[in-house]
Amino acid sequence: MRYEDARIEGVRRLEQAGIEEAENNGKELLFYCCDFTATAYLLHKMEEMPEEKVGEYFALIEKRQEHIPLQHLTGECYFMGYPMKVTPDVLVPRFDTEILVEEVLKLKAQFQAPRVLDMCTGSGCIIVSLKKLWREIEATGSDVSEKALLVAKENGLRNGAEVCFVHSDLFENISGKFDVIVSNPPYIRTDVIEGLAKEVKEHDPMLALDGKEDGLFFYRRIIAQGQNHLECGGYLCFEIGHDQAKDVSRLLADAGYEGIYVKKDLVGLDRVVVARKG
Ligand code: GLN
């Protein structure tokens, strides 16, 4: 079997199993399995694929057919162009979250060397990429999950980003004040989780998804407890669920925040809310 035949068969099996982005996933798994770059693949695709590689590839395809996320099979993904290690202990970084990073980067004009806290950092993708793209920040990432923090630390090292990672249940072990607090907290309403894709509900950590009864549990706490940890004139930047812009904006307004605005993601859904502490 040639590499190209294996890829076509892999994609066919994924399509048959109803896997989204079968074409891309079939290709990515082959590249991963055979250590191919796009160019190397083009050069070698008509060559015979070694027997053991064929076995390895279709074993990966079988796992993907069972809805194990692509990123759990390859152990990594790219976020803001940076490679991030991914394990079942962290939420798989989403493209939509890049919008949040981009909004924080827009604050560059206002701060020289701000202290930035990423609350609920998970894989660390937000704070690691922020540190790479805004070198002057003093970067802190925190999470309640020690296992997630191990992954986040590796991502910091892997990308040469100096970030201080703190184990903390929300602000419990956080001291001092920050100029920017950024967070993609768990925000899915508990009763909605059952309806999510298998890749999400069965493989992303429940701890990273569940925003409790109304999905707003963590926003309420971060907004309330964050008051003591945000400088006046500092910013709170949240990723939100597509139907949470109104509720989160109201929570922020009630807490006295100013200049509240909502930013949409690439498919036009509300995705980020930014507010300034007056
Ligand atoms: N955006 C993720 C999803 O759609 C959820 C992330 C979160 O809860 N913070 O599954």
H and E string: HHHHHEEHEHEHEEHHHHEHEE
Residue share in helix: 40-55%
Strand content: 15-25%
Biggest β-sheet strands, sense, barrel: 7 strands, mixed
End-to-end Cα distance: 65 Å
The tally of helices reads 13
Low-pLDDT ranges:
none
- Average residue-wise pLDDT: 97
Rg over C-alpha atoms, rounded to the nearest angstrom = 20 Å
Which small-molecule ligands are present, each listed once? glutamine
Order of strands across the main sheet: 5-4-3-6-7-9-8
Structural class of the secondary structure composition?
A: alpha/beta
Number of DSSP strands? 9
Q: Quick one: overall form?
A: elongated
Structural commentary:
This protein is α/β, with parallel strands linked by helices and 278 residues long. The protein is 42% helix and 20% strand. It is built from 13 helices and nine strands. It has helices spanning 3-16, 22-34, 38-44, 51-65, 70-74, 97-105, 125-133, 146-158, 190-193, 198-201, 206-209, 217-226, 245-254, and strands at 76-79, 82-85, 115-119, 138-143, 163-167, 178-183, 230-239, 257-264, 270-277. The strands form two sheets. It has a seven-stranded mixed beta sheet with strand order 5-4-3-6-7-9-8, sandwiched between helices. Strand 1 (76-79) and strand 2 (82-85) form a beta hairpin. The N and C termini lie far apart (65 Å). Bound molecules: glutamine. Glutamine binds next to loops.
